[in-house]
């Protein structure tokens, strides 16, 4: 019976926490919107590797294509039915719920006013509540994703609202949680960011055309100019009359997910004015100050530990070294379906550079310890390669709390840091010393040393949830 | 602009006429419901070759799998997640709308009461009207198929109704048109047939388990016993308490599609008491009486013309002969996407048996002339093979009207019979004489010579629509 | 160890008996040779459904494409690299050896004189012997098929011979067994038939272009004119100078496989002057004379039993009836990989037409009883459908011996007729009477009533092998 | 005609230069040889991404599987027919010839003594000559790869030799060029390295089992212990009696390809005693000495330029910085089929880290300039990101000559360095200065400062071919 319950839970998808990326194009002129989306999605692939999709509006007719797999697999060819002037697109990584193409985005829906398409990144806190309420009114759902809930609300608001942008603005009153949202009607591209701006969203320009994307790296990749961040709470409408901003839901507050800087965003992306690479280098500098140690070399666990390692090296003066070779033909550790696959892929993915560490006292920098096994494997590999000492430095604080805003973090029960002190953990992973970035210094990552009000979300570290969450 | 409108029309699917097949299993005992469905679908494959799907309920948890292609392709293996005790399944052939997997059935929907699945065969007359009305209430649609409209209505009725069977009964009040419907809740299998019984639907038993299927041939294939036809208007609920019938919507009327006998049903199927093969043999006998001619051999166009040819041979005493060889590795002519593919496949598909017809006066029997080109090609082939005369006999009347109940018939403008007299048509196809079954004798096909009230629908021949239809 | 030996045997393919089809085009003018091949292969698909391939010569450059599956699957699109003026092609059905694409044909080989391609239908008696001899000289083999052996011999002869046609003629001196062979050099198409003409091979013309094919039905399908059979022992060279015949290896003898008439060839094909359909009708007539019985209807097991059933009906005056419906969406029984799949597919493939046989005395005609199970299933189905008596008539004699010339016949141990008398067999399959065509009347099938010398091979029935064979 | 000639050339594969990787397992105990091969191939994937394959010997029966694509794609599942105790495997990257599965390795051949399998890395200088000679003797070829030539020779030698290892030893007398060769007979695994040791090959041990691999990184990945390099000219036989070495063809000379250190090998691999990473760091140090310049940061082009950048930074004292982010979801630039794809993928693959370079004088280190376009694009990107000066340093000398030993280097005509002086090139790529590693200092990369005899091949830089080559 327990198993059945679990099966129910998974099937019904009450826990669809997921990290995703969105990219949209409004073309004025000759751009092939879907092709630009493909190139943009390539740059956002690190935000989701499970499925992807592109929806286009061609002279007012909306159509789309979705598939399981990487962008390069699903869109090896851009099919002819994706011709069009407006397009929104999506990459998805799911941690719960079923890996099925129905759950891929963008969703294309037909309602009273015709068709529209929806894609979003983030996670609602009250999706289940809204879903039940909608169901009471007879609504039905094909998928287990929040986007369908949002689409339902927009459709209902649209009956009353004069246009789709107003429907989106009203819909936002009902949504609690994190979302960077793209909506495409036959003639408009709407972008909206939740009032706390948990997830990034930027506006760019390519010639006369407009781009919206999760990260600036996607603008760079297609050669577009960065215009500005979409503000927390802002709704932007792009249509034949140009770009129009609606700030009805803006409050002046902002609580961007600090994990975007630590891990999610690509290092070359600039989020709300701060380059991810720079904030990681800063994390390394802070670690050097917080946990000084005598050592011969500093190495980073590729790829995300390299930036912080460089910062630690600079601050401490201890030489930076390449400590590992990463096999680029295997995927990301953090983003793998289940634990057994995670374990096996560590050995295939990383190999220590023996001559860099043999006989040396090594400071090894990584971005996080979600589960302890991966770290233990890596420390073991360094010792096997001859490292005399291994001092582990983590460029984020210890994680104690789940995330309700779209980051895939295990339950409290599964989190290593809730079962072990740092000292215990140090022994468990076989390190000679272990230091986590102090939570109180997180603000310095984004240059917010002594700001009067916190501008980022660090709930997974501190439990300080910007929105009341169950659990 | 015209092209865009057309594209809109196709995309929005206002003309989703389609012929399909349904098959459901309620297992008491060890039957693997999905495997039984697969075998049943094999037997119904002639009703739809475009896509197929199976939905199962496993201990109350509903899941499913759909795909484009033949049953043997999509279900080469029955995946483990299709284990379960109850199952409904579907084969689909679409003539309009997009050939996409989203439009495949069964649909699995989530609503207030959890999940349910829907599959149906037939076409609603008022689907668009209901869809608009539902959209006014904020409903949204993912597909362009009637099943989604039916599912929406059931979900709304279910809020008020005490159980799903009552919701289905109430939903039927809103539906106008043809439907043989299967609904699966976590614990029940519901079968319903529209009040005029346009499409067939039968109940069978396999050991202690219950089967519902579009045609009896599916019962034979899996070794099940035929119990009875589901009556027009009847709703049957199968659950742990057995089979329960609800006849609230029964009126005593019946108007089964006569084309089921002429062409659609497999010859071995018995529909409302009449074997399709027997009614085709009878059509041949009638043709012999209605259009007597001196000839040396009677041949049928395989496969569906063979039965009528046999009847004509028996009635006339003219020897039956194999006139053609059919290439079994190519699909059905009538069921092919576009006209150019139809033409080419005729030559690859049929070849005249020269020695059977050379120097002879031939009566060639076919089941219909929808477009004239195919017939012209076949007559030409016989003459090339040496036939002295070719007298064409068609085992159905001339078609003049569209069908709104799920048969793929071209528009009035496209129908050959609306542009040419039979004499002109005879010349066009190069035949020496041509005779169509007289519409007034259709009743004899099903042994209803002088019935007081018509029990079948022949609207495509006569324009006598049992339900008021636009167009 | 025994298992390993068996694995060895299979892997090394000492028993690659297979039935195949070949088709070649030499285009003078605008024909796209590969496309014509595809249409021709469609018509020969009954000769092999496992794999297919096309090799072309484009301005002297030879290239090709092969794949597992039906022609319509492998050549859904004709790839651009198959442009060319000359082409040979092949469909394959293998009964032993591995079902791998390496074993598909045509083979394209590179040797001293450049490239050439080989495709053949038939089976050599001395392939293993030649293979060993070639291996002694250092030859190596990539596949387990006879074609590679033939290609090796041609390559060796070519070193000495002035041209490829002479190399083929000399190669034939070494080959013992059945083969209808196509060879393509950069500029020539060579067709050769073994000196006894076991397998059919015909020459046709389409406009100015030349066609060679296993059966005439392939000529009809592409609209080509039948010119003549290639004679046993003849080599035909087609090149820029037209068609040239070489009869060095002709002996005037002929021993075409009688099973081609009984089962293999498509009924509309004319082999060495006799239409397969006509010979099957004659088999039915002979059965009527050899085993008279009182009955109400004559039915045939589709498709290959229908022709003989018609003949039996005509000779006896007992009405012909459709006794079964055949599911065209499932493959041929005789041609299925293993026994368990054979059994299951019978029920899915055939269904008795109850009203045609209920309460009647039925004569059921089939083409052979290779294994008894299929027949027993069919008789059982008829009785279930209400048949009062079932008299089985088989349009071929009892099979007692293996075939070494390319027909897939089980070992002596597996052949039912070697374990049971006809009476026993009759009981085993549950029939009321059973009659096999008498072996001494086989000549009448091809109008060779009292010929001085046998012109066909009936070794599987009589053991009279035209060539000494081991086993 | 020219086009046809070209087509001929490509088809006949006279220029099959390719870089590949090999991996073999001889299991004593419970290792599943094919699974170990898969993990090993993962680590060698950088040596070839076009196709891969595994051949196994299971109790003396040899079988295999090959496919186009990455290891993770082709061997997502290890099929059951790859069970076995001995296995050899291969990854392939082809620069000429057809990308077809027939050309994938290992090749499995059948000859007088049964079956054997062959896989190799390298390129023969006299393959064409041997091929013609073999063809004179009647040999035929299915593929255009050198492995088939080697297999033919082994088969011929095997007729005279007492065992397969002797056949390999004798075969080596005929081969001129580069090869690291694995041969598997039913009971033996043979590894051989050409007498000059152009390509790496190492021996390892995993428990009681033996491993041979192109690089040590494959040993590390599977947790195997490095035993030693296979010596130039050495043949190693592994069978039930253990490891036996044959040094008949050893001459004491060695000429390993210096490009293995500069680019091909994974940085963590140790080749003939020198770690690739260390030799790249040394290249950076040499560049600092050879081309001193004032600058603010040193950056490397990922991934292969990073090591040398680190060396340059250390030697010069100028800070090392991350200058680029590399999109790991797109493949390697150097290894892409055609030029147009190379260009487009640069933008998608690399993005400058603006804040690292803006306003700074940058030293950018890359491993080579094969064609100038890629470098120009990268320099342009840095300037766009705000770099004040860009000084390009290349960790290899200018390339002037083709490679006949398996490295994919364009023709003399296509090589940028044969058309432009370094100064011109500097302008063409838009750099402020440009320096290539001096060819005379190459020896220092492998610690061979003033060795009496050159132990590496630098022919592509110097034209000093260790073996006489045409062209």
Radius of gyration of chain A equals 23 Å
Largest interface: A-D, 43 and 43 residues
Fraction of residues in helix of chain A:
25-40%
Tell me, rounded to a whole number, the average pLDDT of chain A: 88
Structural class of chain A, by secondary structure, is alpha+beta
Shape of chain A: elongated
Largest sheet, spatial ordering of strands of chain A: 3-2-4-1-10-9-11
Figure out the total of helices of chain A. Answer: 15
Largest sheet of chain A: 7 strands, antiparallel
Task: Indicate the low-confidence ranges of chain A by residue numbers.
Answer: 1-17, 332-343
Quaternary form: homotetramer
Strand content of chain A: 15-25%
Which short descriptors sum up this protein?
homotetramer; 471 residues; alpha+beta; six-stranded antiparallel β-sheet; 15 helices; disordered N terminus
Structural account:
The structure is a homotetramer of 471-residue chains. A seven-stranded antiparallel sheet of chain A has the order 3-2-4-1-10-9-11, covered by helices on one side. Chain A has a six-stranded antiparallel sheet with strand order 5-6-7-8-12-13, covered by helices on one side. Chain A has helices spanning 2-12, 33-44, 71-74, 127-136, 146-160, 164-174, 216-222, 258-264, 276-290, 306-316, 339-349, 354-357, 372-384, 422-428, 459-462, and strands at 18-26, 51-58, 61-68, 86-94, 107-111, 114-121, 180-184, 189-193, 202-206, 209-213, 225-229, 235-239, 242-246, 256-257, 270-271, 274-275, 297-300, 324-326, 350-352, 361-366, 389-394, 433-436, 456-457. The first copy, chain A, has 15 helices and 23 strands. In chain A, helix 2 (33-44) packs across helix 7 (216-222) and helix 4 (127-136) crosses helix 5. Chain A is of the alpha+beta class and 471 residues long. Chains in contact: A-B, A-D, B-C, C-D. Chains A and D meet through helix 2, helix 7, helix 10 and helix 12 of A and helix 2, helix 7, helix 10 and helix 12 of D.
